[in-house]
Design brief:
It contains four helices and six strands; from the N terminus they run ααββαββββα. By secondary structure, the protein is α+β, with helices and mostly antiparallel strands. It has a single domain, classed as Roll (Nuclear Transport Factor 2, Chain: A).
Length: 133
């Protein structure tokens, strides 16, 4: 099952990179818990519960507040029902014109092929500095 989980996560990042949000949301369990890193720009509602909350309070904000925001995966680690992905975030925060290039680690929990939990770890100080005028 863990090899299948790895492939699910690789395809999820590929879909996100193409802007295929319906495919990304379709990989989520109806009761997914989405945990933004403490003190990250979008942590005020964390954890977000359900695909609708993630779409409204995270994905739409990324799409409207950033130019070229990307999550660039570099390594995938198989930990059974948890897949750990390390990489970098990049983009330009529209309100300030400042660039983000921050390391990131994502912890994804999958049950029966669906993502049930996401936990983000990233450079929250850099993100705050990029967003500050």
């Amino acid at each position: 099952m863990s090899q299948q989980n790895l492939e699910t996560m690789r395809s999820l990042y590929a879909a996100f990179a193409k802007g295929d949000v319906p495919t990304v949301l379709g990989s989520f369990d109806a009761a997914i818990e989405w945990h933004e890193a403490e003190n990250f720009l979008y942590a005020e509602g964390s954890p977000y519960i359900g695909p609708g909350a993630i779409l409204q309070d995270v994905f739409l904000r990324l799409a409207t507040e950033w130019d070229g925001f990307t999550a660039n995966p570099q390594q995938f680690f198989d930990a059974g029902e948890t897949i750990i992905v390390t990489g970098r975030y990049s983009g330009v925060y529209k309100a300030t014109g400042k660039k983000l290039d921050a390391q990131v680690a994502h912890f994804w929990t999958l049950v029966d092929g669906k993502v049930t939990r996401f936990r983000q770890y990233t450079d929250t100080l850099q993100a705050a500095q990029v967003a500050k005028a």
